[in-house]
Fold this protein.
Amino acid sequence: MRPTIEFHILDYLGFGEPESVGRGDWVHHDKANNWKRGLRFADAAGLSLHLRDQLKRREDFEKLPAWVQIELEQRQKDNLDRTRVMLQEFVELNRQLQAAGIRYLNLKGLLLAPDFVARSEQRAQYDYDFLVRKEDLQRAYRLFVEIGYSPLHSTKALAADHLPTLIRKTGWQWKGNYHDPTIPRGIELHFQLWDADFEMLSIHSLDNVWEDSRCQSLDSIEVPALSRENTLLYCTLHAFRHLLRNDLRLSHLYEIAFFLQRSSNQEDFWQGFFARVTSCPNTAKAVATTFELARCLFLGVLPPPIRPFVSRHLPTTAESWVRAYGRSGAIHCYRKNKNALLLHLSLLDSNPKRWVLLRRRLLPRHLPLPSFGVQVPPEAQSLTFRMVKAVRYLGLLLHRCTFHVRSLAELCFHIPFWFIQPHWRKRGGDRSSPD
């Protein structure tokens, strides 16, 4: 079967040697409707800007249809404008927190360059994440409310480790542009970095991030942030959690693969990182699984310092899951079905936990939250707007019901075969010995 354009894009973005990654012949052979589908996929996966840069580096950009070149250049321009605005806004938010004497750390975002991306404007970012001391959490929340931010409706699943997302309700409405400079940026105030109760996996490796935090220079100020080791660990666990929840953007895996490739010769860093990770067995499993998935999609072969760790700590069930579903589910960002539930079940250490997870995931306990018009203040919503909003929400309900019924039927087919496979005969689904 001929690979679809989504797989061509994934292969083309690989970090392997030129002869081992996807060739560029496909860029001028696909029809217009294929490229439209490819751009939709790249946008949803957060890969459009990386694709443009790779096409430029490999001198394949001019081979694209002219309209695709224009589309990609417009995305780059929009995101460059967006990043400039966000940098100013980000600096001001840090100033506000520091002036109020609030103890906090920056998470991810604009501080990920150059470890995870070469330049900040290469990634699409939609919010600012701050880890705040619990004693200062309500003060930080009131601070942002007082300067014009409002909370969005939320659920336990959406806000497992942070307060409801805060956003400025500017009246902006979605028009299909993922890089629109005017998309309002959210603020997430985290009180923890992992919710063991919700995920049912105990992870302690991020418990002491305050002790070895650092300051980074940003524009005209110094901002507090996670250490380099903890930044990689948090980004990896963040991606892993979204994988388990069926909403992982592939750009998270791409950025992890970028870090692995870029820092593969930094032996001192990896010794310290692996010492931290292996002190918690569940962390080691989660990190090894995420690294293996990043390898499957973007690396081909793991760099030497990382390979022995993954070989030793990757559960057999996780290896089987990556082989069976890692690549096929990627073109839908693991949102088309609930196959990630099989991975989650395999990592739990008791049947009671598995039954709780099955009930939670197969029988949703709340209606989906509306997404249309949430940035529009109530007083600015006309009768026509409210009618459109109601119709959109009914469409969302129908879509989610269809998804749950279809994915449940598919999962019921897969589960019996999954649990009788040889990988389940080994205790806990782990490898019995390292390679």
